[in-house]
């Protein structure tokens, strides 16, 4: 990823004219909405949304939570480590999270989550990476977490040339969240069978 600043731009465009090297207020505004020179990966966005869900605490991402034998003996377990803490007032956290809930409820993400089958409050945001003329459809983003009041899961989807965030990435996030919460809300006797251990 890349979070540019005036010094970065000056170095990046060192061989260009002084006006090309200058940082303009509009570039700060572009970054505020995820445009301009800003670059992020899906994993970085997932970590950021983890921070939103946890009201500031971002943990180091990991892929394996536990390794255990079929007998249940735990061979290795990952201990979550705090990577950083984002500072904000409770009012600021509430305003941001309430806004993300509204995106899913009645905003740009509503079409992707309409009729969600489980009583779970979801927060999220659509995103569309606009490209230049002749470069194809926008890239599609959706980032979200749930349940809002006691977060368990963060899901991020990115689809190159997928169009608007609610069109392509939003339905992917919805499907993953449906599968995640299905086990909690299925009627008794219809549970998904446990997978057989490998090896």
Q: Helix and strand layout, with pairings?
A:
Blueprint: H1 6-12, H2 18-21, H3 25-32, H4 42-53, E1 57-59, E2 66-68, E3 74-77, E4 82-85, H5 90-106, H6 110-113, E5 123-129, E6 139-146, E7 153-159, H7 169-185
Antiparallel strand pairs: 1-4, 2-3, 5-6, 6-7
Helix content: 25-40%
Give me the number of helical elements.
Answer: 7
Structural class: alpha+beta
Total number of strands: 7
What is the distance, rounded to the nearest whole angstrom, between the alpha carbons of the first and last residues? Answer: 38 Å
CATH architecture of the domain at 91-188: 3-Layer(aba) Sandwich
Would you identify the CATH H-level superfamily of the domain at 91-188?
DD-peptidase/beta-lactamase superfamily
Encode the helix/strand succession as letters.
Answer: HHHHEEEEHHEEEH
Which descriptors apply to this entry?
single chain, 199 residues, alpha+beta, Beta-lactamase, 3-stranded antiparallel β-sheet, two-stranded antiparallel sheet, 7 helices, 7 strands
Explain what you see.
There is one protein chain. The protein is α+β, with helices and mostly antiparallel strands and 199 residues long. The chain has a domain at 91-188: Beta-lactamase (3-Layer(aba) Sandwich), CATH 3.40.710.10. The chain has helices at 6-12, 18-21, 25-32, 42-53, 90-106, 110-113, 169-185; strands at residues 57-59, 66-68, 74-77, 82-85, 123-129, 139-146, 153-159. The strands form 3 sheets. Strands 5-6-7 form a 3-stranded antiparallel beta sheet, sandwiched between helices. Strand 6 (139-146) and strand 7 form a beta hairpin. The two termini are 38 Å apart. The mean pLDDT is 91.
């Amino acid at each position: 990823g890349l979070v540019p600043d005036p010094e970065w731009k000056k170095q990046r465009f060192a061989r260009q004219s002084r006006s090309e090297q200058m940082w303009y207020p509009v570039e700060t505004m572009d970054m505020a909405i995820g445009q301009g020179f800003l670059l992020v990966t899906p994993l970085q966005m997932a970590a950021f949304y983890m921070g939103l869900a946890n009201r500031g605490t971002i943990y180091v991402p990991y892929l394996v939570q536990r390794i255990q034998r079929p007998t249940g003996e735990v061979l290795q377990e990952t201990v979550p480590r705090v990577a950083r803490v984002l500072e904000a007032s409770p009012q600021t956290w509430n305003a941001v999270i309430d806004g993300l809930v509204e995106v899913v409820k009645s905003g740009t993400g509503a079409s992707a989550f309409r009729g969600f089958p489980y009583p779970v409050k979801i927060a999220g945001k659509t995103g569309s990476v606009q490209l230049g003329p002749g470069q194809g459809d926008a890239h599609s983003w959706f980032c979200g977490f749930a349940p809002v009041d006691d977060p368990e899961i963060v899901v991020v989807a990115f689809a190159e040339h997928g169009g608007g965030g609610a069109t392509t990435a939003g339905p992917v996030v919805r499907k993953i969240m449906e599968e995640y919460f299905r086990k909690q809300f299925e009627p008794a006797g219809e549970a998904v069978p446990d997978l057989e251990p490998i090896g």
